[in-house]
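Appendix C. Worked example: Pentatricopeptide repeat-containing protein At1g43980, mitochondrial
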Amino acid sequence: MFQLLRRAHGLCMPSSFYFSRLVDRSLLSKCPTLARVAHAQLLKVGFIPNTFWGNRCLQLYFKSGSVVDAFQLLDDIPDKNTISWNVSLKGLLKNGYLNYALDLFDEMHERDVVSWNTMISGLASCGFPEYGMRVFLDMQSWVIRPTEFTFSILASLVSCVSHGEQIHGNAICSGVSKSNLVVWNSFMDMYRRIGVFDYALSVFLTMEDRDVISWNCLILCCSDSGNKEVALDQFGLMREMGNRPDEYTVSTVVSICSDLRDLCKGKQAIALCIKMGVLSNTIVLGAGIDMFSKCNRLDDSVKLFRELGKWDSVLCNSMIGSYSWHGFGEDALRLFIVAMRQSIRPDKFTLSSVLSSMNAVMLDHGAQVHSLVIKLGFDQDTAVATSLMEMYFKTGLVDSAMRVFATTDGKDLIFWNTVIMGLERNSKAAESLAVFNQLLMNQGLKPDRVTLMGILVACCYAGFVNEGIQIFSSMVKTYGVNPGNEHYASIIELLCRAGMISEAKDIADKIPFEPSSHIWEPILCASLDLGDTRLAETVAKTMLESEPKSSFPYLVLIKLYEMTWRWENSVKIRYAMNEQKIKSAQGSSKIGIKSSVYSFEGDQLQIHGGHDTCAVLDLLSWDSVDQKIHWSAYHFH
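Step 2, the predicted output written as structure tokens:
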């Protein structure tokens, strides 16, 4: 290669241009051997003592990961300048030598703003953003004027509002131009990330220039704050003002339509993607699959996935998640297997979706996926471990779920909530309460409304009246959570099961918002059991006023009027039900036979394999002590 370059330029000795091309090629290849060859050539012609070429060769070694060679070269450069130290500092941080970088930074006799910026960004990339903020404070004490790049780095490190305001104010005092898109886009994203959406909007309005990143951040701000319709309006305004959306914009818009379950606008967004020619983009296509799935158009999700014929982890995750969300566990597992045969390595999202789709007759497959999780090293991932526990709790294997709980280190709040609610659903209320007490001893986590709802339901099912009342009473003061409908419903049901109907009625009457029918149902059932017809009638009428389409209060009133021989009132209620086309809810059951799950309604007389199923149910219903089972009477085909 070197000879060809020499002949091309007609040179006997290599020129500066030759070495410039050589170094550029070596930087692109990132090859340690090529870096050493370039270094040898520079040594041969005596260029290394030159600070410029020494710095260029330092870049070569750090780019190729040859840190030891780089340090040896640094000692050979006689006249080191600030660039030499900055290149070394950046190279050490890029290669993960944080301690050496800190020592080098302390030894530097002269630091410019590039040195400080390198140290701040390096600490952030190594997972120490708080130390990056401290370096910035030291930088100010050394009276080093920050640049626009400094502020864009700092914006990505902020985790609280006060720090964000200080850095924002510092940028204004430093005279950062309002037309500097990098800085102000960074501040917008900073405020969006920490949840101060009004500040993000203020930054957007004060910007002199705006690009597609500015508009993307504004749309995300509106969406994250819960104003998803407003986010779509901002997208329309963006197009009206002549700003062309990119792939990220349209994927965000499709995701917003998915959250809104707005199929009409979602189709319009997909049509725009086709018009722009970006539907084949993995992120956009994944958002489209998710949108159709969330809008109950799973067939369209499958059609979109098959027609484009792209196989990668993102799209397979979207499709597997869609199958799982609709309860098609077998299809999710089948696609998972096909994806692995296509050499698509599953990630934590794939495994989490597959595990969430497992049902009672897929336990063998669930155990195999669990083994794969361990083999791929995802057993300590919190999301995957949460899905594993959810699968085991759902299938009644509490011991297996608790083994996952015991062996997982990084437990987040969703993980704890899954355990608490899983134990409660499997009639392990005492164990659920014990896990809740473990959570309270965890200094870094605080129970949220889901946690408190789960533990209140556990107390309700187990009859832990005192514990339930204590937790409910301390929700606001201790945990900072205002009780919602689900919390009131749980504590009222707990009191009603304990025979404390008057106390439950007092709580229901003092609810500071319009209660749902679920709150009144326990009181209604308890009053019927105790024969308090007057209270039952009052509560049933209250439920009809709040939710006139619910069949439960109608049925209770019919039963109540028939019990008290008020036939005329009973007929009126039945007539009102027919007029409003209200049908009583039918119960359904599921049973697993071999590898299939059969579901049938309460009034369904014939089901697939009905003879065998009913025979098994008859066997289960017999008293094994008092009844003598004659197996010859049953013929299973």
